[in-house]
Design brief:
The complex is a heterodimer of chains A (116) and B (111). Chain A is mainly β and 116 residues long. Helix content of chain A is 0%, strand content 54%. Classes of the chains: A mainly beta (116), B mainly beta (111).
Chain lengths: 116, 111
């Protein structure tokens, strides 16, 4: 069973389009995250949700809007895609983010977004 | 502001050698430090989590240490194998609950 899954795995689209990436975790975790990994492989947190509530919202353009219909899902919608949005987007989850042993993060396989 | 640095950015060693990867952070006010590996084209896999009150954690051939006062952690890999080739990332859970990431060390184990 896949613990954290993302769809699609690859996404190629034109500038200006709107797209969504879906994430689901079957671990029963309370906290989910979206990360962006750029071409230099640097991993940057975008959003963190705990029990469907937004906890962390880093400096991310308003074109990015996360949505958590329930605590097992955290989807990422991107409006008006730009060339600079091309990257690999990772979803992750953890039991909590309180800093204890249950803070271990589990990552999805990533979605490679290419904006043409 | 918490910053996490991993040096070197890349490392290549022959199979069978023991090796150490380094991670340093600027602010000792952390809850934990985590080590991950990332294989090409894949997501990240958690290796070890060391809580701020701990000095080390072990899992198989991996041993991670934490010296909070000096802002350093090391990941020791014993008897390296080609399958250990990957990028290794460390991340610290800062006291404000932010998870701050290093840029990673790309490790190549030569057969």
């Amino acid at each position: 069973d896949t613990a954290v899954s993302q769809t699609p795995k690859y996404l190629v689209t034109q500038m200006g389009n709107d797209k969504s990436i879906k994430c689901e975790q079957n671990l029963g975790h309370d906290t989910m995250y979206w990360y962006k990994q750029d071409s230099k492989k640097f991993l940057k947190i975008m959003f963190s949700y705990n029990n469907k509530e937004l906890i962390i919202n880093e400096t991310v353009p308003n074109r990015f809007s996360p949505k958590s219909p329930d605590k097992a899902h955290l989807n990422l919608h991107i409006n008006s895609l730009e060339l600079g949005d091309s990257a690999v987007y990772f979803c992750a989850s953890s039991q909590d983010q309180a800093g204890g042993a249950t803070d271990t993060q589990y990552f999805g396989p990533g979605t490679r977004l290419t904006v043409l | 502001k918490q910053e996490v640095t991993q040096i070197p950015a890349a490392l290549s060693v022959p199979e069978g050698e023991n090796l150490v990867l380094n991670c340093s952070f600027t602010d000792s006010a952390i809850y934990n430090l985590q080590w991950f590996r990332q294989d090409p084209g894949k997501g990240l896999t958690s290796l070890l989590l060391i809580q701020s009150s701990q000095r080390e954690q072990t899992s198989g051939r991996l041993n991670a240490s934490l010296d909070k006062s000096s802002g350093r952690s090391t990941l020791y890999i014993a008897a390296s194998q080609p399958g250990d080739s990957a990028t290794y990332l460390c991340a610290v859970r800062h006291s404000n609950y932010q998870l701050i990431w290093g840029a990673g060390t790309k490790l190549i184990i030569k057969p």
